[in-house]
Amino acid sequence: MPQSRGRLSFVVFPPGPSDAEDLARVHVQSWRETYRGLLSAAFLARMSEPGFTRRFRRELTFPGLTVTLAAASRTGILGYASGGPSRRRIAGEAEIALLYVLREAQGAGVGRELLSRTARALKEGGARSLMISVLAENAPARRFYEHLGGVAEPARQEPGPGGELLWEVAYVWPDIGKLT
Predict the structure, then answer these.
(1) What is the enclosing helix (H) or strand (E) of 141?
(2) Residue 170 forms beta bridges with which residues?
(3) Residue 84 phi, psi (nearest 5)
(4) Interval 63-108: pLDDT, tens
């Protein structure tokens, strides 16, 4: 069912391998928009759409326990979310590993809808709680998760691109149902 927030109308759907190129474009563009000044400019410049296209095609062909949803308007894919079992291996906890929305679509409900629908799919798969990690310096994303009721855990250092240690904050929803 199409969603309409303000002037932006979009649909959320499970992408297939044929959407890999568009997802890669969104991934690279959103990283360059979001992480400018937070990650190395050289790293962001080296990001490869063809490389991410191959990765998305493989992951969408053989999804395993992962749930991936995309949001698109008439002009193309605007964002996507992907999640599965938590890397922390906490029983009943799912994790949104990727949630990216192009800057042009931010504030239009795309991220909220992707998060909600991905959480719903993970809940249907048995998850009871949800977590998502964000760079500690990514203030807009942190405000977004806090607005949606996520509870911040203390910041921790995690290896980032190129092995550089970065500070991340995990946001947790003890009851995944609060997002659905």
Answers:
(1) helix 139-147
(2) 133
(3) -175, -155
(4) 888 999 999 999 999 999 999 999 999 999 999 999 999 999 999 9
